[in-house]
Specification:
The chain is mainly alpha-helical. It contains 14 helices and no strands.
Length: 295
């Protein structure tokens, strides 16, 4: 979570590389890539995109077309577009990543699972839930068959399968997968790790959909507590937490509290997301509706 320190370190490294390497040297692309990843973690997606595109331009000029670093660039740009709510662009870049990996890696390689996972995430956001589920199940299959399974990768697959089921309205199945993910993450990570906040948030969403509002509120508050400690004040994930809590109060009929949380979500969303981002539109719509109820 010490993003500014990491950014300072990588910017110094970039300065050294720019002075000592030719402009299309692959090592220079690594510097741009690292800075792009820090900006993505900070929720500064436009800046992240600029650095990842610099890295990609160098790699396209200096590396063979099936090189793993090119796949990494396509993947990282795809992740940024996903975070920016530009899902068709995200899918294009994730499919380019998968194409390289299919040509250069065995079918059971963990990077193949990463690609299936990321393509599944995009399909989920595009409303293609059964397609998303099939990609997440492919990823899970690779992780489960690995001779030395990475437990956190398994948790990611369980989490994403849970989200597909939640979006399909199969809440008890969704809850079961999210609880599996949470159990693994609690065993492997510190209690204030940001990945735990993802689990708490998603379980909160399921309980809200199931009408169990006190449980939903408890999980959303746990997610928010972790995010407040670890993220910059205008990070999009904070907006998601405020919106989640607002939805619970909204469903409970406590419109004045819902209003406060929707306002927080909208303010942060306006600072951190593109104007046409689906999440920002959701926050604005929620705020508008609760304002009418509050009159």
């Amino acid at each position: 979570g010490e993003y500014l320190k990491a950014l300072s370190y990588y910017e110094k490294a970039l300065e050294i590389c720019q002075k000592s390497l030719p402009p299309n040297h692959p090592n220079l692309s690594n510097c741009y890539n690292n800075i792009g990843e820090v900006y993505r973690s900070m929720g500064q997606y436009s800046k992240a995109l600029i650095f990842h595109e610099e890295a990609l331009a160098i790699r396209q000029k200096s590396l063979p077309s099936t090189h793993s670093d090119l796949a990494t660039s396509y993947n990282n740009i795809g992740l940024v577009y996903y975070k920016m709510g530009e899902y068709s662009k995200a899918l294009t870049f994730q499919e380019k990543t998968l194409d390289i990996r299919e040509k250069s890696l065995p079918s059971n390689h963990s990077s193949m699972a990463t690609s299936y996972n990321n393509i599944g995430l995009v399909h989920n956001k595009m409303g293609k839930y059964s397609t998303a589920l099939s990609f997440h199940e492919k990823a899970l299959d690779i992780h489960q068959k690995s001779p030395s399974p990475n437990h956190l990768s398994l948790a990611t697959s369980y989490n994403n399968i849970g989200e597909s089921y939640r979006n399909m309205g199969e809440y008890s199945t969704a809850l079961s997968f999210h609880e599996k993910a949470l159990g693994i993450r609690q065993n492997c990570l510190s209690s204030n790790h940001l990945t735990l906040a993802i689990s708490y948030n998603n379980i909160g969403l399921v309980y809200n959909d199931m009408g169990e509002y006190s449980k939903a509120l408890s999980f959303h508050e746990k997610a928010l507590e972790i995010r407040l400690k670890s993220l910059p004040t205008n990070h999009p994930d904070l907006a998601a937490s405020y919106n989640g809590i607002g939805m619970v109060y909204d469903m409970k009929g406590d419109y004045s509290k819902a209003l406060q949380f929707y306002q927080h979500a909208t303010e942060i969303g306006q600072l951190s997301l593109p104007e046409n981002h689906p999440d920002l539109q959701l926050y604005k719509n929620n705020l508008e509706f609760v304002l009418k109820k509050n009159k």
